[in-house]
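hey so i finally got around to running the thing on that chain from the lab meeting. sorry it took forever, my laptop kept dying and i had to restart like 3 times. anyway pasting the input first so we r on the same page abt which one it is
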Amino acid sequence: MEIFNPLILPTLAIAGGEIAIALFFFMIFAILYRRDPDKVKNDAFKLAILIGIGLILIAAAGLGKYGLLPVALFLAYFGWQELLETVQIKYGAIALPVLLQLLGTVGIVGGVWGNVFAIFCSAIVATWVAIALPILILRHPPPMHGILTTAFGMVFITIPLASLLTLADSAYQEFNLLILLVLTNDGFSQGIGKILGKMPLIPGISPNKTWEGTLGGFVACLVLGWSISFLLPNWQLWQVLLLSGGVALMALTGDLIASSLKREAGIKDFGQVLAVTGGVLDKFDSVMFTIPIFYFIVHCKQSLN
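ok and heres what got predicted. didnt touch it at all, straight out
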């Protein structure tokens, strides 16, 4: 009986090629900023964490949904903590935030059952309990921003992570494509933006994002989709390329939404649980936004085959 999914080896080989390319670009960056060793060291640490995240997700999902479950619970727990703390910075206290955090975290377990109905049932139950319990316990109206944050958190954190669990078990090839695409878009858009970036994309929301970096991340995703398409025998090449470009655009949108939340709250990072890269939402905002749409496309594709 195989412990790991056999597709993990070719996926790691492709990830290794990406890492080599990323290191090449980092060497160029290090040469350009050699007079600022602290900046080079800080970005080297960020790159190492990005690579580590990708390898952990691919390896954990290689064990199936139960292998990925501890990682998903970690992401859900700290993601909810960061979201609630961010909203409270701007709008004041939320009623029973620890209860909301726990319910939002537990809500992802619907993904273990491996179907859309279970995912949404667990999320809906967690949402209604999280909204109703503070009213019943406190016996007075809780702050409205707490209720709205609960609903947003279920859509932005709980449902995506539950869907990710299902993908890991039923569509491991597509799972790996998603993870590699989002991390590729993140890494190459930042790297190319720092080396070649001149034109700000949306400076009012994310001043460090540039058109050059965005285009670099988009092209890198298309190249990755082409190189990994042999692992997706049920997908035609044009479908993989279209999906890869779509993921790049959705990842960008998720990143801008998270940046908008941080800008509104007046903070630089959601947290520090991932060291210099910030918090869970700083690093996983792109993938959180992308997962539900990606899962829907993959589910429809599997139904048609």
